[in-house]
Amino acid sequence: MAPVDNRPTVIIAGPPTSNGDLHVGHVAGPYVGGDVYARYLRATGRPVVWASCTDDMQTYVVTTAQRLGTTPEELVARSTESIRTTFEAMGISLDGFSPTDDGYRALVYDYVQRLYDAGKFRLRTVRLPWGERSQKFLVEGFVGGSCPTCLDDSRGGFCETCGHPIDFDGLIEPSSILDPGEPVSYREATILVLPMEEYRERLIEYHARRAGRWRPHVVTLMREVLAKPLPDYPITYPVEWGLPAPFAETPGQTINAWLEGMPASIYCTGWAQRHRGGNPPADDDAWRAGNDARAIVFMGFDPLYVWGLVHIAELMAHDGRYVLTDTLHVNEFYELEHEKFSTSKGHVVWARDLVAEVPRDVVRFYLCVSAPEHARTNFSRATLDKIAGERLVRPWNDLAGSLAKLCVEIGDAGPLPVSPESPAYAAAIVNRFASCYELDSFSLARAADLVVQYTGRLRARAAAALADDLDRDARRLRAGDLFLEVRALVSGASPILADLAARTDTPISFDADAYQVTTVAALALPGLDLRMAPAGPSEDN
Ligand SMILES: [Zn+2]
After folding, report:
1. CATH (domain of 485)
2. Within this chain, do residues 166 and 262 fall inside the same structural domain, yes or no?
3. Those residues with Cβ within 8 angstroms of residue 236's Cβ, 6 or more apart along the chain or in another chain
4. How far is the CA of 484 from the centre of ligand 1 (A)?
5. Distance in Å, CA 201 to ligand 1 centroid
6. Which of 102, 127, 107, 141 is nearest to 258 (CA)?
7. Looking at the structure, do residues 191 and 305 belong to the same domain, yes or no?
8. Are both 404 and 322 inside the same structural domain?
9. Is 369 within a domain?
10. CA of 140 to the centre of ligand 1 (A)
11. What angle separates helix 261-275 from helix 102-117, to the nearest 10 degrees?
C-alpha cells in the first residue's frame, strides 16, 4: 500500500439535482462510495469532512416541474426534503447537508465576482438554439438533439453517454424539451465565458500527474477532450431560471447552474464543519490553499467534463486561493433490470422504498458488491435476494450461531487466550480491507467480496471448533483465535455494514497493532436479515 496521506480530507458527492427523490441508481455510486470512504477515514482517526447539498438551479428542475405540473420552487422544496431523508434512511453519514440559503448565495457570488474582477471571463457572442414559439433560448436541459461526437441522444452542454462537451450550436437536429413540436432556430447572444483554452497546458499537467491512479475511463475521456480545442465555457446564459448574473455586460442573464457546483462544494464543506460544532473562520476555509486539504469528489461519469476540466480551470483561475480537487472518484451507470433507470418512465426503485423492505446494511452490501466501478452494472431485486442471502446473510448467521454455541460450551465470560500466530491473521484481514478503502486502490466491490471471503473462513473454523473433540483449554484457545479474527472482520466490514458494526460490542480498528494481544473477549455477534422485521403493535393500542 502507498504511504497513508494524513492531510485533512474533504469528501464531496456531486450535489444531487433537486428535481426528485434519489433512486437506487443515484445512491449506488457516489453516495455509498463517499460514505464508505468517510466511515473508513473516521475509523482510522484521520480528519475528514463529508458533505453534500442540492443543485437547485439546473434547467432539469424546470423541465421536471413542467412534466409534474408544479412550479420549480415547489419541486425544489419537496425534493430537497426527500433527498435529505433518503440520505438518512440509507445511513449516508454526511457531516452536513447544507441548505441553499443566503450564505450559499453569498459564497457563489463571491466565487464568480473574484474571477470577474480578476479579468478571467471573456465576453463572447455565440449562436444558441432558439425556440420560435416560446421566443426563448434553449440551453442545457431545455434542448435535445444528437451528440456531435458519439451521435447518441443528448441535451445541451455535454453528452451523458460519451462525456464530451457540446459547443453552443453543436447539437445535431436540436429540439425543444419543454415544447417538443416547437420549431428551433439559432440566435446570437452575448454572454460571459471562461476561455478554457487558456488553461490547456495546466490542465494537461494536472491530469498527467493523476493518470496513474485514476480509473482508465476518466483518463481516456480527459485525453480525448484535451486532444481537441476546448470550447469556451458559458458563465452566464440568457435564461430565466438561475441566480441572476451580477455583471453589467449581461443584463437579465443568469449564472450557468453548472458553475455553482464548485462553490456549492466549498459552501457545504464549511456548513458541515459548523453543523458538527466546528467554527471555521470562513465558509470557504477548508478549501483555502493554505490548509492543504485533500479534496475528493465522488461522482458519476456523465458530468466529468465539468468536474474534471471546467471546475479545475475555475479553481486555477482563482490564482492560488483554493486547493485543486485532488481526486475525482468516478463510477459508471447503474441499471435497473438491464435498462436505464428512468423516473419519467416509472422504471425506478426508490432508495427509501428499498430500505423500508430490506435492512440497509444488506442493501449497502449489495450496492457495493454490484457497484458500477469500471463498467455499467445491474440492480435486480431478485439478484439482491439471492446474492445477499447466499453470500452474506446465511453464512453470517451460521457464523453468529456457531459462535453463540461455542460461548455456551466454554461457559465462562472471562478473557480467552490467543495463539501466538493469531494476531498476524487478524492484521492480514484488516490490511486487506484497508487496501480496498484507501483511495488509490478503492473498490467497494472488492471490499464487499472480502466480507464474504472472511465470513466464509470464520464460519468453517467456528463449525470445526464445535465439531472437533477438544479439551476445555484447547476449545478456549480456538475460540480466542476466532474472536480475534471476528473483531478484524467486523472492523473491516464496518464502513459497509455500519448498523451491524454499531450493534457489535467491539472496538473498530484498522490498526494492525490493535490486534497484537494475548487474550480477547468473547462477543455476541448480531445476526442479519433479508427483510425488515414487521413493525410491532403500537403501545397506544
Ligand atoms: Zn456523445
Report:
1. 1.10.730.10
2. no
3. 191, 192, 245, 247, 250, 253, 254, 255, 256
4. 52
5. 24
6. 141
7. no
8. no
9. no
10. 14
11. 140
Q: What is the mean pLDDT of each run of 10 residues along the chain (541 residues)?
A: 78 95 94 98 97 96 96 98 97 97 98 98 98 98 97 96 96 97 97 98 97 94 97 97 98 97 98 95 96 96 97 98 97 94 91 97 98 95 97 98 94 89 98 97 97 98 95 94 98 98 95 97 95 67 38
Q: Contact, 459 vs 392, CB < 8 A?
A: no
Distance 333 CA to ligand 1 centre (A): 15
Confirm whether 315 is domain-assigned.
yes
What's the start-to-end Cα distance of the chain, in Å? 57
Name the domain count of the chain: 3
pTM recorded for the entire structure = 0.96
How far, in Å, is the centroid of ligand 1 from the Cα of 153?
8
Tell me the backbone φ, ψ of residue 81, rounded to 5 degrees. -65, -40
Expressed as residue numbers, the domain containing 25 is 12-114+257-356
Residue 171 φ then ψ, to 5°: -65, 135
Strands 184-194 and 233-234: antiparallel
Distance of CA 364 to the CA centre of its chain: 13
Q: Are residues 516 and 392 in the same domain?
A: yes
Residue with cell 439535482: 17
Inside any domain, residue 533: no
Q: Give me ligand 1 centre to Cα 220, in Å.
A: 14
Q: Is residue 317 assigned to a domain?
A: yes
Q: How far apart are CA 297 and CA 304, in angstroms?
A: 11
